[in-house]
Specification:
Layout: H1 5-22, E1 33-41, E2 53-60, H2 62-71, E3 88-96, E4 103-110, H3 113-118, E5 120-128, E6 131-136, E7 140-142, E8 151-157
Parallel strand pairs: 1-8
Antiparallel strand pairs: 1-4, 2-3, 2-5, 5-6, 5-7, 6-8
Amino acid sequence: MKKSPFLLLLAGCLALVAGGCAHLSTTAGGDSNRVIRGTVNFRGDLELPADTEVVVRLVDNAALAQKRSGANSDLPVVNQARAPAAPQLLGEQTIKAPPAGPVAFSIEYTADDGLLRHGLNLEARVSYGGRVRLRTVTTRAVTLGNATDPHAIWVEAVAR
């Protein structure tokens, strides 16, 4: 008895589909307790005074982005008392009287993979003489792909 090529093709496709489902697996997300490391960099000719303080922060600005995108929607505006959207601080380190040269930092924070997929912001500011003198101008994004890499943050003089 001769089998038709159609039936053989159909049987082969069913075997591939059924066999593919047997190997479907999902991986668990990464550990949500994380550490980010890097350096705060500034002009090499800049000498920092003894009262210098460097603050490095890791923030989630998702609430701000949602508020901005919601402002452009065609939905009716409802007048409700709401707290203003603010970035969520995930971790911070303050370094007082740092040594000359790039300032190393290490921040412990908690963020699941989903939070890192949309991205976090790493920012720094350098203060002395009671005023912020240097700050990040270009945002340094932290994502799931680079969360374990060392990050170099560049700060520039604050406009007066």
